[in-house]
Prior knowledge:
9 strands, globular, 6 helices, seven-stranded mixed β-sheet
Amino acid sequence: MSSPTPVTMVDAHEMILHEAGYEVTELTEADIADYVELVSSAYRGEGSKQGWTTEADILGGQRLDVPMAEEMHAETDSVILLVRDGQGRAVASVYLREPENGEAYLGVLAVSPLGQGKGVGSALMNLAEAWVSERWGAHAMRMSVINKREELIAYYERRGYERTGGVEPFPYGDERFGVPKVDDLEFVLLLKPLS
């Protein structure tokens, strides 16, 4: 039995992930605990050091908790896409917010250290870019990345994102976002045209 022909680019990118053994869904209330665990595994703590996206050397504490995830899920202008493997484990996710002035926002791209290096992150990025373009009419994607994450910024630059020259302050003093281990943290703003 052959797979149906994709109708849209979103369909095509979902099919690529499906054929690799992954399923993509929009986050539901029932997924919140798995989502928090996934994000934590990708960014914080000793386990995150198995992967290249870790922030554990520059930030301690939590990256996301259940109340924060519930707030994100409740937003009416955003969606969180969740990728599960064949065993039902949450292995990747991305937060997308509807466009302002044609620019959608991508945040909290997380890939479990166990899922890194398998193309899941790149496939999810492709899906995210198609999603905001086709479903929301976005002509660009923007994001913010901690300035000390040069390897991650370089990854996004290879994917066509460019530094805008803009920066945003790091929320020092708000431990919901982590406890800084280094000084001079700020967010570098990146933008990619989608058309």
